[in-house]
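Sample pair:
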Amino acid sequence: MGCTMSAEWQYQLRIYLPDDLVEVARANPDGSALAPLGDVLAKHRASLKCQFDAFADYVAEAERHGVTGFPLYAWTKATIEDPIKRAKHLKAFALRVNGEEIYGKAEADALEADLQPLIGAGVIERMSKHDTNPANNPQPPEQYRQRPAP
């Protein structure tokens, strides 16, 4: 057949910003301090979402609606309450394309290529690409996994 499962994976790029740009990006991602990044994002219909803010939004939503429907609640809450992990996730920004958290390989590759020149140029410290292949995504530690109701 020739079709592989890998053709079906979706992707997400994450960028890691220097400390002096973190709060700027969280408060005003379209500001002039991030103009080179903003130009690339606009070209790809992409936007930034701080990983810490995404985690905090998930925890707040779970607490509003009842945590039983949110399997990663305990792990996510513990993550944002840990000062070391908090600092790490404040610097990480997921890139959404057309409002989507995950997107096709072609979109991810094109965005990644256009962002490469910004790495180490004072705008982006580093970049990572993640896929939806379960083998590539670590699971929360056992103590944070939600048990199904009997």
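The first strand starts at residue 11 and ends at 16.
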